[in-house]
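Co-fold these.
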Amino acid sequence: MSTFERGPDLPPPVTQVGVIGWLRRNLFSSWLYSFLTLLALYLVWIVVPPVINWALLDASWSGTAREDCTSDGACWVFVSVRFNQFMYGFYPEAQQWRVNIIYGTLFLLMTPLFLKAFPWKTALGGFIIFVYPFIAYGLLDGAWFGLEVVETTRWGGLSLTLILAGVGCVAALPLGIILALGRRATDMPAAKSLCVIFIEFWRGVPLITVLFMSSVMLPLFLPEGVQFDKLMRALIGITLFQSAYMAEVIRGGLQAIPKGQYEAADALGLGYWKKTGLIVLPQAMKIVIPGIVNTFIALIKDTTLVLIIGLFELLGMIQNALNDPNWLGYATEGYAFTALTFWIICFSLSRYSMRIERKLHTGH
Amino acid sequence: MSDQAQSHHDAVDDVMIELRGMHKWYDKFHVLKDIDLVVHKGERIVVCGPSGSGKSTMIRCINRLEEHQRGQIFVDGVELTGDLKHVEQIRKEVGMVFQHFNLFPHLTVLDNLTLAPIWVRKLPRKEAEAAAMALLEKVKIPEQAKKYPGQLSGGQQQRVAIARSLCMNPKIMLFDEPTSALDPEMIKEVLDTMVELAETGMTMICVTHEMGFAKTVANRVIFMDEGEIIEENEPHEFFNNPKQDRTKLFLSQILGH
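Predicted complex below.
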C-alpha cells in the first residue's frame, strides 16, 4: 500500500502581492486602464486643489460682518454669524436651553442602547419612542410646563430638521411593518386590499403635494374654529407618505424568507403573531436594513421640502439668511454648509447601519 | 376501570393517528386518493415511493401544513379541521423534521431549541434550557449550543432539528425525507439518532429512501404511488415478498443500483 504524498504550499508570484501587485491589478492592468488611471489623476489634480484653496486655505473664518471677508476664498463668517439661527430657527434665544436639554437628554438616554451589557434596552427604547416625544413636545412648546409658549411656527433650523426626520422615521417603521404584513395576508382579502390601496395611493403622490394638501386643503375640511398645528399636519403627512415606502421595502424582506421557515414555526405550534414576531420579522428586517436606511436617508433630505409650507428647517433658514441684504451673494457658502451638514448626518447613519448589519450577520 | 388498567389498555391498542378516506387536491390535481391509515402508539412506519407519489403531502396533512379536502384525520383523538384551536393543539403534540432542516438561522442552536417550549409551552427559560441541553447531549452535539445553524454541518443541523422537535415533548414524530439533503458521510449520524429515538418507543412516521433503516427499525412499510397506498406490510415480507407489480418494480429500481 502506498501513501499519497501531499505537495508543499508555494508562495504566490511576486507580481500578485504587495503594493506593486495591487497597482498592477487595479490601476494598470491594461493600456486602456492605465490611460483611464492617468486621466482620473489629472482630473483630481485640476479640481481638488482649487476647492481646498477656496474652502480652507483662502477662506475667512472670523469676524462679525461681511467686511471681514477680505480674501478670495469662502466667507464662513456668514455661517458663523447666522449659526444660531441655522440651529434653532426663530426659537427665542433666551429659551434655547430647552432645545439643548431635549437633544442632550435624548443623547444621554440613547447611549445605553449602544452598550452591550445594558439589560433594560427594550424598556428604555420603548420609553424613548413612546413617551419621550411627548415630554420633548411639552418642553419645546412650553405650555404644559408653565414656560413661555413657543409656537411650532417659531421652531426651525437643524433642530426642526431632526424632529421631522426623527418622528418620520420612528413612526413610519411600525406602520410600514403592519402595511407590509397586511399586503401579504392572502387569507384576509379586505385587510389586504386596504393595505394595497393605502400603499399605492401614498406612493403615487409626490411629497410636495402631500405637504400642500396638509397645509392648504386640510384646514378647509376641518370644522370652523378647529386649529390643527401646521407642524403636526406636516409630520402626519410625512409619516403616512414614508410608511408606504417602508411597507414595500419590508415586503421585499418578507418575500425573501423561505417557506420552510414558516413551516418549521407552524410545526412547532407557534401562532401567527409569534411566528411573525420571533421568526419572520427578525430575519426579514435584517435583510432589508440597507433598504430601510436608504428610505430614512431619503426622508432626512426630503424634510427640506417643508420649506414650501412655511416651516423653516435648516435649508429654509439658510434661504432666509440669503435674503438678508447685508449678506447678499453668499449663497455658495450657505448651500455648501447645508450640504455638508446633511452629508455628515446621512453618512453617519449609513456607517451605523453597516455596523448593525455586521453585528446581526449570523449566516456564515 | 382503574387508572393503571386504563393505561395498560392504552398501551396495547391506543390509536395515535387515523386517516379515514382522506383526499387532497392541488387545484384540479388529485394528489391523495382515499387514504386510510391507522398508526398505533409506539409504532414506527416507513413510507416510501417514487417522487411525486404524495408521501410527503400525506404526512404534511397530519400536522396540517397541508389541508385535506375530503375524509377525516384524527391525531391523538382530536379531529383536524379548520378550527385553529385543534390545529394548534395537534401541532404541540406532533414534531416534524424536514428535508432541509429549516432551522432558524438568526438564533443560536440553544435558542432554536428553547423557542417553542418558552413561547408555546410557557416553560421558564431555565427549565427550557436545561431540557434543551439534555437533548443536545442525546444527539451528541452539546458543544454546539452557542453556535448558529450556519456554522454547523448538514448532519449536525439535522440532529439539532430533531432535538428541536423533541424539545416540545411530542407524542408523534414525523420525518419528511430527513437524510435526502445530506452528504453521504453524514447520513449515518442522523439515522443513528433516529434509531435511538425509535428505541425510546416514540411513535414515528418516516418518509425516507433509506431501506436499511426501514428494515431494521420499521414495524410497517407503506408503499405509495400516484397518491395511493399501493401496499402495506411488515418490513421482512415487504422487501422479500412484495405482492404488487408496482412495488416489485420500485424495489428493483431502488435496491438494484
